[in-house]
Amino acid sequence: MSSKEVSQSNRPANTAFKQQRLKAWEPILTPAPVIITFIVIGIIFIPIGAVMLNASNQVQEYSKRYDDICDVGNTTCNISIEVPKDMDAPVYMYYRLENFYQNHRRYVKSRNDNQLRGEVVTSYDQLQDCEPYKSVGDSHDPNFFYLPCGLIAKSMFNDSFTVRQSGAVVPLQKEGIAWSSDKEKKFKNPPPDTVGVRIIPDFEDEDFIVWMRTAGLPDFKKLYRIINTDVKKGSIDLEIKANYPVRSFDGKKYVVFSTTTWIGGKNPFLGYAYIVVGVVCFLQGIVFLIKHKVAPRKLGDPKYLEWNK
Predict the structure, then answer these.
(1) Mean pLDDT for the chain?
(2) Which of 85, 91, 102, 130 is most exposed, with the fewest beta carbons within 10 Å of its own?
(3) What does the DSSP 8-state code read for residue 90?
(4) Helix (H, G, I), strand (E, B) or coil at 230
(5) What are the pLDDT digits (tens) for 287-296?
(6) Distance between alpha carbon 92 and the CA centroid of its chain, in Å?
(7) How far is it, in rounded angstroms, from Cα 251 to Cα 66?
């Protein structure tokens, strides 16, 4: 091999780092640390899971399906939800949809973030992600571009609710239902003179921002309003104007009232997961301990290792 070929060789330099000769520590797992690790994980995880489960069980959540009661149209309908005990403020009001696949790939992609940030989009090619809802008649003329384009905006939930208790209207707070990061950075209105066919009047509307944050599962709920007064035990009366059709995709609509705790809303899964993992680890550690005491396995003698010869 010529000197030129040697200089161009890709062989790493003969150093301890590049030739992987640095000193390293490789622990050998003996029964004692393994048993201790399993038992300690169990002791830690079981109480954590119990605390999480208790926090989830303290959440009060009441819901009622109404799509089978309220027909879509211009009329309003009335339903009631029984609350067995007082709900301390703040109480969160949600709408819930079943069998609505917001996580479908084509649906999730069907939006134009430049439009949503308030930028003026004049090129038809920039709207390709909004397929199949880009413009009127698939026109290339910016005067016929949808503002905003895409299936997500087109399918925005638009049922409206009025809440009463004991005959008095319950005030509902809209401000604060959307993420502050979304309001501040992702959604801005375009200039007033922007041409196009307006689908959503206000891009900064928090109902719209909440809807645009797509759900990962076909059964989901989204925050509708916040009630900053205590909801007393008894009946919650709702007047609903049903505008959103769900029968075409065999969907269901619910209205949900819920409190929260430090862990959030009602979700016992995480608590059960910690408890199950903790119990399994603890039992496995006990089984290994019994096995180690009853019929211990003789450990290998390090003197027979190759590098000790």
Answers:
(1) 91
(2) 85
(3) P
(4) coil
(5) 999 998 888 8
(6) 17
(7) 11
Instruction: Look up residue 14 and give its two tokens.
Output: 């003969």
Q: Among candidates 210, 191, 208, 211, which has minimal Cα distance to 200? A: 208
**Residue 25 banded pLDDT, cuts 50, 70, 90:** confident
Radius of gyration of the chain from its Cα atoms, rounded to whole angstroms: 30
> Which amino acid belongs to residue 268?
P
Q: Is 237 helix (H, G, I), strand (E, B) or coil?
A: strand
- Between residues 144 and 16, which one has the greater pLDDT? 144
Q: Per the structure block, which two tokens stand in for 126?
A: 């920039």
From residue 196, how far is each of 104, 134, 135, 146, 191 by CA, in Å? 27, 11, 9, 6, 12
> What is each CA distance from 139 to 104, 190, 196, in whole angstroms?
26, 20, 11
pLDDT value at 281 more than 80: yes
CA distance 20 to 89: 61
Where do the H-state alpha helices sit in the chain? 3-7, 31-57, 105-109, 113-116, 151-154, 180-181, 206-212, 269-294
Q: In angstroms, rounded to a whole number, what is the distance separating the alpha carbons of residues 50 and 32?
A: 28
| pLDDT above 60 (res 7) | no
Q: How far apart are the C-alpha atoms of 111 and 229, rounded to whole Å?
A: 37
CA-wise closest residue to 166 among 240, 95, 80 = 80
Distance, CA of 284 to CA of 301 (rounded, Å) = 26
Say how many C-beta atoms besides its own lie within 10 A of residue 242's C-beta. 22
pTM: 0.82
Q: 222 burial class (0-12, 13-18, 19+ CB within 10 angstroms)?
A: middle
> For 112-161, where are the alpha helices, taking DSSP H only?
113-116, 151-154
